[in-house]
Amino acid sequence: MAAGLRRPAAAAPARVTMNRATRRGVAWSGIEAGCAGLLSIVSAFLVARLIGPEELGIGTAAVSVHVLLWVGVNALFGDALVQRAGVDDGVVSSALWASSGVGIAAAGVQAASGLALAAVLEDGRLLPMGLCLAAALPLVGAAGAVQGLLTRRRRYARLALRTLLGQAAGTMTGVLAALGGAGAWAPVLQQLVTSAAGACVLLLLGGFVPRLVWRGGDVMGLLRIGLPLTASTLVLHARYRLFALLVGGTAGALALGQMHVAFRLVDTVRDLSFTALWRLMLPRLAERQQDPAALLAAVDRLLRLSSIAMLPLCGAIALLLPSVVDLLLGSEWAASGSAAEPLVALMAVLVLSFPAGVALVAIGQAQYALYANLAAIGVMAVSVLAVQPETAQSAVLLWCGSQAVVLPYVLRCNARGLGVGPWRPMRAGVPVLVVTLVAVAVATLLPWVAGPPADSAQLAAVRLAVFAAALALGGGWLRRGRGRRPALATIGRSG
Length: 495
Description:
The protein is mostly helical. The chain folds into 2 domains: 20-214, no CATH class; 227-428, no CATH class. Helices cover 81% and strands 0% of the residues. The protein has 15 helices and no strands. The protein is globular, with a radius of gyration of 23 Å. Mean pLDDT is 85; it is low at 1-17 and 482-495.
């Protein structure tokens, strides 16, 4: 493992403030994440209700291949362009042509998958579905490089328009197709329009005209970052699919369904918010990759800001999920609500380690995330086969346990990259974590001390009110800074 950067000199705590450009970027990223989540939920419920489970299953089979290919093609050069210390038109043009070529190759894979799925599922529609979805992937490849350029320039409004226009057009197409009796074609057409329209928005609004130039050395340099990052993302996606397959074989369909809902409840929020945070953090940290002290100070500042937003959100989700699941899905899905709670705790831990992980990519050490995800897959598979969970709760605990096993390695890699001890990169988030944990404990216990609530709706309302009040008190304590700095300042100094 690389030794990383030299240990930086201690820096004075940065004030948690944002300039106008940063506030605007946060606002646009929040709008994008919120709209993406809303459109995903609306389209999922409407299309599923209109076409039925069997037709949805056929369409989802084709779309699932496309989503994996989209992730790989879109990410291969985008983040590498953001991380690179210096870029010019020649570098971006070379990346765009290379990414377009990868998109063409992925289109071939998508078309071939249609042939294979048609044979396996015995539905001839899957072949034309695969050909249809393949048409968007070359555009996605070209747009991936433009996305990296826009992220590097912090043009978050233009990036958000991909979602606001592209995903909205796709959602409308899918719903209209379902209403028109398109059946399994509805989710396919929805995904096609979402991918193609989103790519076209980036290409048209990106403000970049590629040159007819090819620099093989620059492309290889970008791939040294892009390949491990993309592989890590694909492994992360594959990890849950393998986990679901193993759990379904040991616990049965009921537990698998309850577990899947638990993951969807938490992962939708986590994925959207972490994507927005990644896009905000990577350009800022990459600018400081040659200055260890400035990089560590930026990690601290970004962790303070992100923890203020994300940790209370984790607390609210943990408090409200059981009641919300009972109200919306019924008592037969209660196991999903309780199974989701360990996932929320895991999400909170990831919030604390997230800025340091982005910093590791910013200094060019992207391979360690891939190693961690590969190790987590191995631990997860062995634990499921050994324990053979029978309930959604036990399955989720095994998932979280596999992540906990590799967490020390992740923390150590992050810290070595920053030149500090393993706990130091998370220190800036500890005050908000303490306040959030206390607020969750108070909101959990106080309603029962006052008397058992009448129903789930009343329990959720009381918990949310108590949680908000406790957070307000804790936030005031943090702002005054009474007594917290001496106690917290030594965390992570050793090692």
